[in-house]
Specification:
about 350 residues; alpha/beta; Nucleotidyltransferase, domain 5; five-stranded mixed β-sheet; four-stranded mixed β-sheet; 9 strands; binds adenosine-5'-triphosphate; binds magnesium ion
Length: about 350
């Protein structure tokens, strides 16, 4: 079964054709990173307009790269939740128009399910086994999910404030490193000393996370290091830091964030001893330091290029939804849900 997956929940316009949930026939991603690097973050209105400009060429390229025409496509899958309202609208309106035009069944897919199913997009690897624990670590979410089987999700831990990816982005801003913060922090950290600055772990006793305190702890540590009061404007701190100090802060922060994630995962494993696989999902799962630190867990990671937003993971998740008995939606009444949880999608 060949599924065309369409993803526009944030600032990537993406489409892909995937066969049977595992074999990627094409995967086209147009990122708006260059636009938003200038601003240090995503501007929702600009993101929606950029999706509109490129979505049809992106879909055309996904079909031609896969050597497919519309007759070869069995279904269309599109992200309808969660994400930026305007961005989700462009993807779903395009998908439903194409579904009506080409008479294809249309499926709507929750974005976090797609991130999780990026771990099945490798036909050469044994698929993860159930029950499994999935650590979703992205720009907007930090959740521990328990999956007894395909398309079954229980949230057993979630962040109470910032997502870990958001924390990477905000700390990068304090340090004057470019957006998105994850890749630039991990690059700077390669030349830094991770033991230089001691940063606190949040006092959250259950499986929930909290990352806003860590971001503030970095801010206070930087202010102390350069000897300015806490009222000093954070966007001017970078001018007072040496390159070595930036690298040391990046390494110390990255180590602390990764330690927090892995500590929670250990608690989740102790609570769910029947777990047979651990999978990581979302943009932060591209982090090489995390991958090295998690190697003793025999965890499954997506291909680094599939950790961030892409259409292949949408098509992959849709295949397993169909296998689980999910029915297509009526293209005339598709809705978007910018904040819906994976448990209710
Ligand atoms: N190597 C890396 N190390 C750490 N973080 C990274 C790395 N690469 C990307 N990230 C982070 O991943 C995030 C983007 O991931 P993703 O595209 O999954 O998020 P999103 O789609 O914006 O949010 P969500 O999936 O929650 O809706 C950004 O916060 C980015 O800084
Ligand atoms: Mg995402």
């Amino acid at each position: 079964m060949k599924i065309l997956g369409i993803e526009t929940s944030c600032d990537e316009t993406a489409a892909a054709v995937v066969e049977d949930g595992t074999k990627i026939l094409s995967n086209v991603v147009v990122s708006q990173i260059d636009i938003f690097a200038e601003y240090g973050g995503v501007i929702p209105e600009v993101a929606a307009r950029s999706h509109l400009e490129v979505i049809l060429p992106v879909i055309d390229k996904a079909l031609s790269d896969a050597n497919c025409n519309w007759g070869d496509i069995d279904a269309i899958a599109v992200t309808h939740a969660p994400g930026l309202l305007g961005s989700l609208l462009i993807g779903t309106l395009t998908a439903r128009t194409l579904a009506i035009l080409h008479d294809k069944p249309l499926y709507t897919v929750h974005h976090l399910k797609s991130h999780v199913y990026a771990n099945w997009l490798n036909p050469k690897m044994n698929p993860p086994e159930f029950p499994l624990l999935a650590l979703v670590i992205s720009g907007g979410h930090t959740q521990v999910l328990y999956m007894p089987g395909h398309n079954q999700f229980e949230i057993i831990g979630t962040t109470r404030d910032d997502a870990v990816g958001e924390c990477f982005d905000k700390v990068a801003k304090i340090l004057g490193l470019p957006y998105p913060g994850g890749p630039s922090i991990s690059k700077a950290a390669l030349s830094g000393d991770a033991t230089k600055y001691r940063l606190p772990h949040p006092k959250v006793t259950d499986l929930d996370f909290s990352f806003s305190g860590l971001k503030t702890a970095v801010l206070r540590a930087v202010q102390k290091e350069v000897d300015v009061p806490i009222s000093y404007p954070s966007h001017q701190l970078k001018e007072l830091l040496s390159e070595q100090q930036i690298n040391d802060f990046a390494a110390s922060f990255q180590k602390t964030a990764v330690d927090i994630l892995l500590e929670k995962l250990q608690i989740a494993l102790a609570e769910r001893p029947e777990t047979r696989s651990i999978v990581f999902a979302g943009g932060v799962s591209a982090n090489q330091f995390l991958r090295r630190r998690a190697s003793s867990l025999s965890a499954v990671f997506p291909e680094p290029t599939l950790s961030g937003d892409n259409g292949a993971m949408v098509a992959g998740a849709c295949f397993y939804e169909i296998e689980s008995g999910v029915q297509p939606v009526d293209p005339y009444s598709v809705n978007i849900y910018p904040r819906t949880s994976i448990e209710t999608a």
